[in-house]
Amino acid sequence: MEVIDKVSEILHLLAPIESRQWWRTTDISRELDIHVSTVHRLLSSLKRHGFVAQDPVNKKYSLGLEFLHYAEAVKEFHIVENMLAQPLEAIYKKTSESCFITIREGTWGRIIDKMDSDKPLRAVEEIGTKRSLHIGAANKAILSFLPLKTKNELLKSLKDKESLERELNQIRKKGYAIDENETILGVMVVAIPFFTEKGNVIASLSVAVPKIRMNAETLGVIIKHLIEISEKYKG
What we know:
DNA binding, IclR family transcriptional regulator, Arc Repressor Mutant, subunit A, Beta-Lactamase, alpha+beta, 8 strands, 2 domains, two-stranded antiparallel ribbon, GAF-like_dom_sf
């Protein structure tokens, strides 16, 4: 923990301000009262991972560009949360079933928000749950609308790629995805993608219903509500 504390102190110090943007190892050591050899070792490790940058001429240090990647990821996460908070509540009020927001994390889909049904028999998933992007309606609703190059890269290692590609094409045509017993036994899930203003898929909104309460009419109503809500809350 002591190492993490020291790294945290160094990174806070290196955060650029108008009066100072670059620091020598000795200056960091003096400012934070950390032995210079320890500072040098930690900076070398941080530099290797892209978290700090070193000027090749004067050898001073500043924050590295790797932080931009994490900043964008955090920014996107909160944008998605804020953007889909109202649609999540809207579909929950329409269906009274368990509803979820899922985002893509690399080759995974992760649940980042939910509203649980208050019915005794209901679908239950935890926030943070993740599955491979080719498993389940919530994930496939995202996978179907990814750029072709990205999608092909994600699918190339799968054995039954052709069958999945046909399913993904159908999802693109219909605009929504359905799974039955694929993620939760005895539950049917219906999901629809959400897009940014530029048309990039960023998340899915899904409704999970115990099969005992699902029939063709109920399914049609849920799909109708999802489509209406996605149109109302376009990015």
